[in-house]
Design brief:
mainly alpha, single chain
Length: 430
Amino acid sequence: MINILICAATCLVMILSVLFFPKIRLGKLKIDTYWAVVLLGAAVLLLSGQTDVKAIGAKLIENTAVNPLKILVLFLSMTILSVFLDELGFFRALAGWALRHAHSGQKRLFFSLYLMVAVLTVFTSNDIIVLSFTPFICYFAGEAKIDPMPYLAAEFVAANTWSMALVIGNPTNIYLATAFGIGFVSYFLVSILPTLAAGLVSLLLLYLLFRKKLSEPILGQAERDRVEDRPALVIGLVHLGVCTLMLAVSSYLGIEMWIVALCAAGSLFVCNLVLALIRRKRPRILLGCLKRAPWQLVPFLLSMFIMTEALAMQGTTRAIGDFLGKDFTVPVYGLLSFAASNLINNIPMSVFFSSMISLSDAGLGAVYATVIGSNLGAFFTPIGALAGLMFSSILSEHGVKFGYRDFLKLGVTVALPSLAAALGVLWLIV
């Protein structure tokens, strides 16, 4: 009972901190409160004497598909690849090029962006797309003198909707499919129809939500920004391209995605260090990457994992699974996973729900419903997924406000109808 109270209190305080005091200042240092609160909660849990510390330690190094350490390596490595290009000015130059060729108005740009993000997400992952496209949209909107909100919403919604289509689209897909022995093709045959339903509904609702803003003219003129360091740009683009391709085929080759991403980031650093030595210059871009990497996600994810494992060890997971039963598993697990993602983040939620489904023998319908909830829950609040936290962080760096209320507005108008469409289709086919 003590574990449940500690976890519930931690989640409540975390949500309140995001709403009312997202950052605290310690001298000249600003700290995000969401991870500090969760870290404190995990520490209290471990020190309370109600949790088997050795057992949780063993879980942290267990060789599973979504081990939290592997997820962190994957996420940080991909972040570095994207930030490297941003530090070079690639996204700013790309935004200028896009604006110079934008002669058809905002509506066509909006639909083109959504389609591009949808296609790329299917073959890469939601996190990669959010990391790559968010700075591009910020630069583009600034050059065009247009509101970035329709495009940011379209990017984030498309990335976290079409990520359901393939196993590789989201780390939560990988974890849940692997845990229940669902193959690549088997997963696709079930997931594609709910994904199409959610994708079409989300696109229609996004257009209706922003149609007035999309009718406004493009006023700005793009400057011809160029990336001066061409050798470094080629190195960065080659590494990101090869890494993305390898991530898309890694499941066929039997290589875990975190290994691919780590090798790409390591190779990027080595190549640029060699380039800096040849030039006899300080590796400024690499230092900028290390400074901007989201290190705060390390304590956040590990602390959330500790709390979910503590609840499972206490028997809470089995009790909840037994209470839910085996009737109406698609709507029940879909709605609950959607809600739980926005309380504890979608990756810890997937770990928790995987155990709950397995122990209660709820069936594959519950598994696919949880996959849907873990993906679509990402655009209800910024807590729903790591992509949401990174999305908010990148926008903050670019001076763009997209707060909790903006997420909720997007969630109520787009996420909930998309969730209903996806679960409705899934219920018909499983």
